[in-house]
């Protein structure tokens, strides 16, 4: 699926469409700083029925949210330097829990995720224009 947007309000619609397509418990979010990864996650959790306040997980590395379908874990691996640091946070327990795990900046750990069924979303931004690819 591909989307293009220039407006903040479009994230809600995009998130609802993506929420309906999620079949795997792992979603990797890729994009540069300011691309909209956290904004998408906020809207996705809303589309999944969460009433929790969704914040950036940059400083806490992982945040946990409740939805009617169960827990969702939101990771931000931006500050982690290698796979060993990711293992140190106990990511395997989260991944094996069956809960939806949304991982921003997954590149440092992507090789270790090869055997996990997953979705990937890439957000390319050029000023206010965003091109979003979900697979």
Automatic annotation (TrEMBL):
Predominant place of localization: cytoplasm
Single annotated GO MF: metal ion binding
Family: Belongs to the TsaE family.
Keywords: ATP-binding, Cytoplasm, Magnesium, Metal-binding, Nucleotide-binding, tRNA processing
Single GO biological process annotation from the record: tRNA threonylcarbamoyladenosine modification
Subcellular location: Cytoplasm
Annotated organism of origin: Cruoricaptor ignavus
Protein name as catalogued: tRNA threonylcarbamoyladenosine biosynthesis protein TsaE
Gene3D superfamilies per UniProt: P-loop containing nucleotide triphosphate hydrolases (3.40.50.300)
NCBIfam families, A to Z: T6A_YjeE
Gene Ontology CC entries for this record: cytoplasm
Lineage of the organism: Bacteria, Pseudomonadati, Bacteroidota, Flavobacteriia, Flavobacteriales
Pfam families from the UniProt entry: TsaE (PF02367)
InterPro entries linked to this entry: P-loop_NTPase, T6A_TsaE
Coiled coil: none
């Amino acid at each position: 699926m591909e989307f293009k947007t220039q407006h903040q309000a479009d994230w809600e619609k995009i998130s609802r469409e993506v929420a309906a397509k999620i079949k795997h418990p792992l979603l990797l979010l890729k994009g540069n700083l300011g691309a909209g990864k956290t904004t998408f996650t906020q809207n996705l959790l809303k589309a999944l029925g969460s009433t929790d306040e969704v914040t950036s997980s940059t400083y806490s590395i992982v945040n946990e949210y409740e939805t009617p379908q169960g827990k969702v874990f939101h990771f931000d691996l931006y500050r982690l330097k290698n796979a060993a640091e990711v293992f140190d946070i106990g990511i395997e327990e989260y991944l094996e829990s069956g809960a939806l795990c949304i991982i921003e900046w997954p590149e440092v750990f992507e090789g270790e995720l090869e055997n996990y069924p997953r979705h990937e979303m890439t957000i390319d931004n050029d000023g206010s224009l965003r091109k979003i690819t979900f697979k």
